[in-house]
């Protein structure tokens, strides 16, 4: 194994993939919370929505991690 850094394009592709997976989870949580879970438990749907609200800024931070000069 070498100590060579991974290419920039591979790092960007991995970050992009992680970002889109996280945003997909966010959308899935919101859709499930307000179309399925709310029928049984409104507090659970609110908690799911709160978790979903934290995902976009977290995804943006992770997608840009280490990009600074």
Structure description:
The model has no long low-confidence stretch (mean pLDDT 89). The chain has a domain at 26-69. It is 72% helix and 0% strand. The protein is elongated, with a radius of gyration of 17 Å. The protein is built from two helices and no strands. The chain is mainly alpha-helical and 69 residues long.
Subunit organisation of the chains: single chain
| Poorly predicted tracts of residues | none
The count of strands amounts to: 0
Number of helices: 2
Give the helix level as a range of percent. over 70%
Please give the largest β-sheet.
none
Main structural class = mainly alpha
In round numbers, the mean pLDDT is 89
The value of Rg in angstroms is 17 Å
H/E element sequence: HH
Global outline: elongated
Percent range for β-strand residues: under 5%
Task: State the distance separating the first and last CA atoms.
Answer: 27 Å
List the helices and strands and how they pair.
Layout: H1 8-35, H2 42-63
Looking at this protein, list some descriptive labels.
single chain; 69 residues; 72% helix; elongated; mainly alpha
Q: What's a concise summary of this model?
A:
The protein is built from two helices and no strands.
């Amino acid at each position: 194994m070498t100590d060579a850094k991974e290419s920039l394009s591979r790092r960007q592709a991995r970050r992009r993939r992680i970002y889109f997976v996280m945003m997909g989870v966010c959308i899935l949580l919101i859709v499930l919370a307000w179309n399925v879970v709310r029928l049984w438990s409104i507090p659970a749907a609110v908690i799911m929505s709160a978790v979903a609200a934290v995902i976009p800024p977290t995804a943006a931070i992770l997608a840009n991690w280490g990009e600074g000069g």
